[in-house]
């Protein structure tokens, strides 16, 4: 087992071993099936000193992100969430033409487009060539690069430091978390703010969200290990908010030490994590046990439905779907196809299990009796979009946090 990537403790404690898994966002084309599909070890562990959850084996970021097929703009919920956040920050922090906003992993500009519209100067940092191109075509200033201390120092030397640094669902992707946080400190103006959003580790454990484990997600953060991590680099977490997106996320506010008053939300959440036993082995053991239970329940249900002659499909060619399908051993023997809204994924195959990915209209055209909702974190949005399918008798199966038929 590798050492902790935050505090350096020499030995990690294994939580859940998912075996050899394909890259969750590496969707092959049908003509690629003759080529070997790479698989890599995927094991979740926790540091017994600082209690940071992390995977044990890394895949080089350039392999994961140079061409990327996740476009945030294909989710109405993500667009709405981004717009509301941008409007709030512009208002609360009095951002205007005099300000500068940097977003790390800015994707296709789904968030920064709101700052551009408000005439707030901004810069996106996005490593995926294809996605950075789309953002620039939309008029979003975008630098094609991976973020870290070296890039932050370069931007700072050019005078491009930020009043606000944003990072939505990127913090957990950075394999060298000390380098990432050091980069935040280097790029921040004296009174600047860092706001990061990421899936929250307590929700991850309590809701058995094991399918969010994939090679891009190196870390699964609770607040407890983040306090010393930020302190190590001269930063202070001064406010936290729990938000419902992605099955339960944390919005973290940080700045230079002593520059912003620390809200009661920080000690309150730390105390709550203590009650959950985050600094004991118990919640991690319970999590692994529940994953096995859910696997057995879902496989039993799907096999029963199939044996009764029902047609089955899935919805949401999400990265989490790759983990669930491969670890549970659910493939073409049980499901006919996966429907997804993104044209970038349509016509391709789900990694590992090679289920064909089709447009959402396939649910009405083919009318499977039951559809496994892999993108359960957008359940409300998808159920509303698929109301005609449901009115025609189609039913959805939610796999997490409990197996339910809707």
UniProtKB/TrEMBL annotation:
Residues 244-401 form the C-methyltransferase domain. SUPFAM superfamilies: S-adenosyl-L-methionine-dependent methyltransferases (SSF53335). GO terms for biological process: methylation. Keywords: Methyltransferase, Transferase. InterPro entries: Methyltransf_Zn-bd_dom_put, Methyltransf_Zn-bd_dom_put_sf, MeTrfase_14, SAM-dependent_MTases_sf. Residues 4-65 form the Methyltransferase putative zinc binding domain. It comes from the Bacteria. One of its GO terms (molecular function) is methyltransferase activity. This is Class I SAM-dependent methyltransferase. It comes from Limisphaera ngatamarikiensis.
């Amino acid at each position: 087992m590798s050492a902790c990537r935050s505090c350096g403790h020499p030995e990690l404690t294994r939580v859940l071993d998912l075996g050899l898994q394909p890259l969750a966002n590496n969707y092959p084309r049908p003509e690629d099936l003759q080529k070997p599909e790479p698989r890599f070890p995927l094991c979740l562990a926790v540091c017994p000193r600082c209690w940071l959850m992390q995977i044990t084996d890394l895949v080089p970021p350039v392999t994961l992100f140079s061409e990327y097929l996740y476009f945030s703009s294909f989710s109405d919920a993500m667009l709405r969430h981004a717009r509301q956040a941008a409007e709030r920050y512009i208002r609360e922090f009095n951002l205007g033409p005099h300000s500068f906003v940097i977003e790390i992993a800015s994707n296709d500009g789904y968030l920064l487009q709101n700052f551009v519209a408000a005439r707030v100067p901004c810069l996106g940092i996005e490593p995926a060539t294809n996605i950075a191109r789309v953002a620039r075509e939309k008029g979003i200033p975008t630098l094609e690069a991976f973020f870290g201390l070296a890039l932050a120092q370069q931007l700072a030397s050019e005078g491009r430091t930020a009043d606000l640094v944003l990072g939505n669902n990127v913090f957990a992707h950075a394999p060298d978390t000390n380098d990432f946080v050091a980069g935040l400190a280097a790029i921040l103006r004296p009174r600047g703010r860092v706001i990061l959003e990421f899936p929250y580790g307590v929700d991850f454990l309590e809701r058995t969200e094991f399918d969010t484990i994939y090679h891009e997600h190196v870390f699964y953060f609770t607040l407890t290990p983040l306090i010393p991590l930020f302190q190590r680099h001269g930063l202070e977490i001064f406010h936290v908010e729990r938000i419902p997106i992605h099955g339960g996320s944390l919005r973290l506010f940080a700045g230079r030490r002593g520059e912003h008053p620390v809200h009661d939300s920080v000690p309150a959440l730390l105390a709550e994590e203590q009650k959950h036993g985050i600094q004991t082995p118990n919640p991690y053991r319970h999590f692994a046990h529940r994953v096995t239970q859910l696997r057995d329940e879902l496989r039993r249900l799907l096999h029963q439905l199939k044996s009764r002659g029902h047609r089955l499909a899935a919805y949401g060619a999400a990265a989490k779907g790759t983990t669930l399908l491969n670890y549970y051993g659910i493939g073409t023997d049980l499901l006919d196809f996966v429907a997804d809204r993104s044209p970038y994924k349509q016509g391709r195959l789900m990694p590992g299990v090679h289920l064909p990915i089709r447009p959402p209209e396939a649910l009405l055209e083919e009318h499977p009796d039951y559809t496994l909702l892999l993108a359960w974190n957008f359940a409300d949005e998808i159920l509303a979009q698929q109301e005609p399918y449901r009115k025609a008798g189609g039913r959805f199966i939610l796999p997490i946090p409990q197996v339910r038929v809707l």
